[in-house]
Sperm equatorial segment protein 1 (Platysternon megacephalum), 275 residues
Amino acid sequence: MGNFKGHALPGSFFLLFGLWWSVKYPLKYVCRKNKNACYFGSRAGFQRLEFIEGIVKAVFALIGMIAEQFVPDGPHLKLYNYEEKHWDHLMNWQHATMYLFYGISGLVDIVAHGTNALPVALDRMMLSLAVFIEGFLFYYHIHGRDMLDFHVHQLLLVAIFGAAFCIFLEVFFRGSIVLEMLRTSLCILQGSWLWQIGFVLYPPNGRLEWNQMDHNNMMFLTMCYCWHYAFAFLILAVNYTIVSWVVRSKIKQAQSVEMGLLKTSERDQESEDEI
């Protein structure tokens, strides 16, 4: 993760899940009000989505762990260098540990929604723990860094611990669209900010490096962080509007078809009465 690609990869994972949730939860909310017009309004429909999501989460986590271990300069499952007598590539091991807990969260999703072996609420509990572990590892991951490096990761921690607390509340207030959308916004923020960190600390294509000790850079990035969050809410607003429009259009279309069939049956009945 000590390069641009290492930040872009997990950032892409978070962005993909955030974008998916920004469609899934508005769809769930709108369909819940119109169960007859939307298949996913049923409990079975959303359980299937949760099951598939768990599989994707577990696969992404496995890809992350393999990438951290077997990149050319990775540890290749070697934790301690006995020849030089020091820990080997601890940064990669920390990131692999983060992916491990997201993988466990995915497996819990699969079991909880694919069988009756686990309480359904355990999926949110495990996801909350996975996000907390991510923040816990990052907190001890940034000690001793340059000022700007420390600051951009410190801002990331705000989104991580905020998301962990939000998901923990979902254990007790499951189905709350407010908490689900808040969690989605923080997930998108994590993803976009990881990309931003990559551009700041490891500028691609030979771009000029940021001055790590310039206080103005720190002020700008703090403001930029707020812009990222505003962008996350813009994505939520756009996707919510599109989903609502599509579902309502489908409902009106279904109602028009039903009215047409009703009128046809009434005319047929009148014809039979006349005969």
